[in-house]
Amino acid sequence: MKIIVCGAGRVGAQIAKRLSEDGARVTVVDTNANLIRRVTDSYDVAGVAGHASHPDTLARAGAADADMLIAATALDEVNMFACQVAHSLFSVPRKIARVRAQAYMHPRWAGLFGPEAAPIDVAISPETEVAEVALSRLVTTAAFDSCTFLEGEVEFVGLTLDGDCPALNTPLRQLGELFSTLKARIVGLRRNGVLLSPGPDDQLFDGDSVYFVAARADVARSMAILGRENPPAKRVVVIGAGNVGLSLAQRVEADPRGLRAKVIERDRARAEHAADRLGRTVVLNGDALDPAILDEAGVADADAVLALTDDDRANVLSCALARQAGCPLSIALTNDPVFSALAGALGIDVTINPRATTVSTILRHVRRGRIRAVHAVGEGEAEAIEAQVLATSPIAGKRLRDADFPVGATVGAVLGRDGLTMPTGDTVVREGDLLLVFALRDAMRRVEALFRVSIDFF
Question: What's the average pLDDT block by block, 10 residues per block, for the chain (458 residues)?
Fold first, then answer.
């Protein structure tokens, strides 16, 4: 597959890296020649210096025979017009654009993107994606990572174990026998900084981070078995009323679980803008680094605080102050890995990286075969992959033990005609089944191949 990536910034470079590792032929386009040099020196990709929306630049990048264009520059309009040029002049089959301005994404203008308008197959809003991730963290409050799969029936959860975990020093095989009615399975394990795909004889130790999949109804019980309570977050404080913070506050208001939010925004005009667009949410104009404002927002009595401004330093420090005031859960938006590391040292529970979230979303639309969803784990060390089995898929009609899944890949759950099951080696994979697979980086391409679409399908 030949792919053009427009933009050599953090998102574009990460996408190029991941796609090249997957075997795609990637060309990166950017106006900054230094960024192009850095990307081409670091990864197995080609580079073209020039404007992504200029026809001559796309021609030099090989648009005439490209299979896909991913526009991820810093400017929405450049991304949108690059897709237009790729479509009109080069007939590039698939175009994906990162679009940050919420005005373009409003449901009122739903007809903007499509064959008869701006020819963009997928428009991705990083702010919307981050808001969804933040909301999911409020559901699994004790987790550092979570994502929903298989039509909402399954949660993928990351959890750090401590010395109080009753499952320590117990082989995973034995845990399965002790809790035979529990629809849950541990699929990933991080120990001493190394991510592993554990086997049935592996044990859990204090300080391990585990990734498990569980039926929605069994998530709380699974977390209790692993020594962590999962109290629901009902009262939350959102710091920052920008695109991400406002989007999250709107989702909190619409959430059927009865969540309540207060918003702190330093800029007065932005605070008034947010207040006009929110119904029952209190918006406070002030600096979240001021303990008096945190006290006025009721941080000490809140179940969670989420710092979602565009300033990593302010996010980390305000979360640290909230923790000091007694808030049990703190979530900080961080773009810089340095601040992510600092957040852990300050006792901040969760950091959300917008770059990783955007990359995961884009990769979901790049994967071949019937890959329906992708969630990146860590710094791309592994992925949780939701895929559908077609009649012509190589694994259709086979038992899992005979399906040739590679080492480093584990099928965590299957949603089929008989409902949700935690599969065994004897589980037969049928046409139409949805599988949730945890795959380490080295196993991803082989997993993808197992769900490829045969030419007979067409």
Answer: 93 89 90 96 95 96 95 94 95 92 77 78 87 83 86 91 90 88 93 91 93 92 88 89 92 86 96 93 95 94 94 93 92 85 81 83 71 81 90 90 92 93 92 94 86 50
What is d(CA 292, CA 312) in angstroms, rounded to the nearest whole number? 21
Q: Does residue 230 lie within any of the structural domains?
A: no
Is 325 inside any structural domain? yes
**Residue 125: predicted pLDDT:** 87
CA-to-CA distance for 12 and 14, rounded, in angstroms?
A: 5
Burial class (CB in 10 A: 0-12, 13-18, 19+), 112: middle
With the C-alpha atoms ordered 427, 432, 437, 442, is the resulting torsion angle positive or negative? positive
Give 214's strand partners. Answer: 155, 184
Which pLDDT score, from 0 to 100, does residue 458 have? 30
338 in Cβ contact with 332 (< 8 Å): no
Choose the final residue of a domain: 324, 354, 384: 354
Do residues 424 and 442 lie in contact, with contact meaning Cβ atoms separated by under 8 Å?
no
Please state, in angstroms and as integers, the Cα–Cα distance from residue 136 to each residue in 181, 237, 398, 400, following that order. 26, 15, 34, 31
d(CA 19, CA 333): 25
Q: Tell me the Ramachandran region of residue 234: left when phi exceeds 0, alpha when psi lies from -120 to 50, beta otherwise.
A: alpha
For residues 311 and 402, state if they share a domain: no
Buried (b) or exposed (e) across 49-87, using 16+ Cβ within 10 A?
A: bbbbbbeebbeebbbeebebbbbbbebbebbbbbbbbbb
Q: Tokens for 292?
A: 């008096």
Phi, psi angles (nearest 5°) of residue 400: -60, -35
CB neighbour list of residue 192: distance below 8 Å, 6 or more residues apart: none
Asked which of 124, 150, 172 is the last residue of a domain, the reply is: 124
Q: Within this chain, do residues 417 and 392 fall inside the same structural domain, yes or no?
A: yes
> Which domain covers residue 192, as residue numbers?
131-225
Q: Which two tokens stand for residue 154?
A: 């399954």
Contact in structure between 24 and 43 (CB atoms under 8 Å): no
**Residue 36 shares a structural domain with residue 74:** yes
Residue 346 · residue 319 · CB < 8 Å: yes
CB distance 30 to 54 below 8 Å: no
- CA proximity to 260, closest of 280, 235, 284: 235
